[in-house]
């Protein structure tokens, strides 16, 4: 009798877990469906051309696949600041592999936290122009998943995969001018380093 009772209890727990999973899955699908409907209505209201609509749909699909509709920033904003820092250090631990940082024996935690606090996850579709040749470099790009393509001044194309970093010139520039601007951004983009390549998405 005890064995039968235990078996029924485990079966009931299994059924309960399956119901919770299916409810969660159904809720996510509903959220995705509502999001797609809102995007379609917005594009129609703005009378976007079909090619632009296609790109928006593709970007939305990639973004949803990457985040499952969860806004990480909103989830973390109510957490204690020290816990937010720990989470960001875990999510963005690849930062310490950047060539400039790798030369440092030990990076100060406050510096790492300051960098991680400013990192934002973006999803790009194939053909997206991320950095432009000749334009001011105002960001660094860490490739977490997928591939990018760098095109130099001589039009030679170089594939970049996971773990690579683009825009390290900006970091070097900041280190060289740290005493001049004392941690603040320059008033105009003219003083920023200029890109010698262009970077675009290269992922199906």
Automatic annotation (TrEMBL):
Domain Cyclic nucleotide-binding: 103-172
Organism: Carnegiea gigantea
Family matches, as InterPro entries: cNMP-bd_dom (IPR000595), cNMP-bd_dom_sf (IPR018490), RmlC-like_jellyroll (IPR014710)
UniProt protein name: Cyclic nucleotide-binding domain-containing protein
GO biological process: monoatomic ion transmembrane transport
Keyword terms of this UniProt record: Ion channel, Ion transport, Ligand-gated ion channel, Signal, Transport
Domain of life assignment: Eukaryota
Signal peptide span: 1-18
Any one GO CC term of the record: membrane
PROSITE patterns: CNMP_BINDING_3
């Amino acid at each position: 009798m005890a064995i039968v009772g235990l078996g029924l209890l485990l079966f009931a727990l299994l059924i309960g877990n399956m119901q919770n999973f299916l409810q969660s899955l159904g809720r996510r699908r509903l959220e995705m469906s509502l999001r797609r409907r809102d995007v379609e209505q917005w594009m129609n209201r703005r009378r976007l051309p079909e090619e632009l609509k296609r790109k928006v749909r593709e970007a939305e699909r990639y973004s949803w696949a990457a985040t499952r509709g969860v806004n990480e920033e909103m989830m973390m904003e109510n957490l204690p600041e020290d816990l937010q820092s720990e989470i960001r250090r875990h999510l963005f631990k690849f930062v310490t592999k950047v060539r400039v940082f790798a030369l440092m024996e030990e990076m100060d935690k406050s510096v790492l936290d300051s960098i991680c606090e400013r990192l934002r996850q973006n999803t790009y579709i194939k053909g997206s122009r991320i950095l432009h040749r000749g334009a001011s470099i105002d960001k660094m790009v860490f490739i977490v998943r997928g591939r990018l393509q760098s095109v130099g001044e001589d039009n030679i194309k170089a594939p970049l995969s996971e773990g690579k970093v683009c825009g390290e010139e900006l970091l070097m520039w900041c280190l060289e001018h740290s005493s001049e601007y004392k941690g603040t951004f320059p008033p105009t983009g003219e003083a920023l380093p200029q890109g010698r390549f262009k970077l675009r998405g290269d992922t199906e």
